[in-house]
Amino acid sequence: MLKILLRSRVSAAPLFRSFRNLHYIQGQSPEPNIREYFYYIDHQGQLFLHDARIKNFTSCFKEKRFIEFFFKRLRLNKTQRYPDFPYISLCGRERNFISCDDKPIVYLELVKDSATTDYLYYGGYKADLKVPFEPSKLCMLPSNGRVYYPTKDLYGGIGLIKSKIAIELSQYFVFENGELEPPTHIDWNNQRHELSNKLLPLLVAKD
Known about the structure:
- This protein is α+β, with helices and mostly antiparallel strands.
- The protein has two domains: 98 residues, no CATH class; 72 residues, no CATH class.
- The chain contains four helices and 16 strands.
- The longest helix is centred in the first third of the chain and has 9 residues.
- It is elongated and about 60 Å long.
């Protein structure tokens, strides 16, 4: 793990933390040669220590190498430890438990990288993690107005579109069933795409 980030985490480590009956110590060692840390991802995709008192852009992690390393190893937490942290990033001898405001994968930018392909970028500040953008896979949940997009099953299968991008995309949505129902199409790059809404049953089940 990068030394600069270790120093920033160790500063919080001596304090015992309890959140809604969650008990842990940052950097605790439940067994030899294992360290455990606890993180939080907000709806803007920013990564924080879970026990950070103030969570904003100045206090989130920004080191590109660490963020890419962290998110590439993110997956569902199947360790049976800390079920209130449904995700984990295993980094060598470190277990990094993760909770989030909505989804751990938040798509932060929509960029046209070539003449034919658009990409969604995720993974925090300046991370170079991306997936091809297929507009038909977008899904808006009417109950909260948020827009979602598929991600790897390792991450739970559903990613969140950052609100700024979602607002920009929403002007292209077509609501053939009325605005109280999910959009049915999106007009993108001079073409009307029918939305599959395959994510909708999964989102409704968890809503």
